[in-house]
Amino acid sequence: MFYKFSQMTGRIGAASQQAAFRPEGVLPLTQTEAPPLIFGSPVKPAGEVAAAPQGKPAIVRNKVPEMQQIMQKPGNLLFVKRGGLDTVLYRGTMGLVVVGVVYACFGLFQAMMPKKSED
Q1: CA dist 21 to 1, 11, 30, 31, 52, Å?
Q2: TM spans, by residue (predicted)?
Q3: Counting runs of H as helices and runs of E as strands, what totals does the chain give?
């Protein structure tokens, strides 16, 4: 005799041999044909870029060598090398970090101090 756990009732009940060794929801394979290819269409090479609205080809300029030249120059700090916007973003980020640390310390301090009840 074979038994199987019923998820519906939450109990163990009698079952056939085939049902006892087959997990819930898993059925034997019925389809043996390969499905049609989803990506069967030809693929464009990575170098091709969509045409610009005027019909001229869009030329993407590689900025990596220029940025490497800027970052490798000796002198200023890294966050100042590209100009004023980088400085503003750096200082703003550092300001938010300081405010966050102060707020976290304030929250910890308030959690540490017992509150006096007015009974």
Answers
A1: 12, 16, 18, 21, 61
A2: 88-109
A3: 3, 2
Asked if residues 1 and 14 have their Cβ atoms less than 8 Å apart, the reply is yes
Global pTM reads 0.41
Give the chain's end-to-end CA distance (angstroms, integer): 71
Q: Where are the domains of the chain?
A: 78-112
Q: What is the maximal distance between C-alpha atoms in the chain?
A: 84
Burial zone of 4 (CB within 10 Å; 0-12 exposed, 13-18 middle, 19+ buried): middle
Evaluate whether 15 touches 3 at the Cβ level (below 8 Å).
yes
Residue type, 4: K
In the prediction, which pLDDT does 43 show? 66
What is the tens place of the pLDDT at every residue in 31-83? 778 777 777 666 666 665 555 556 666 788 899 998 888 888 888 787 788 88
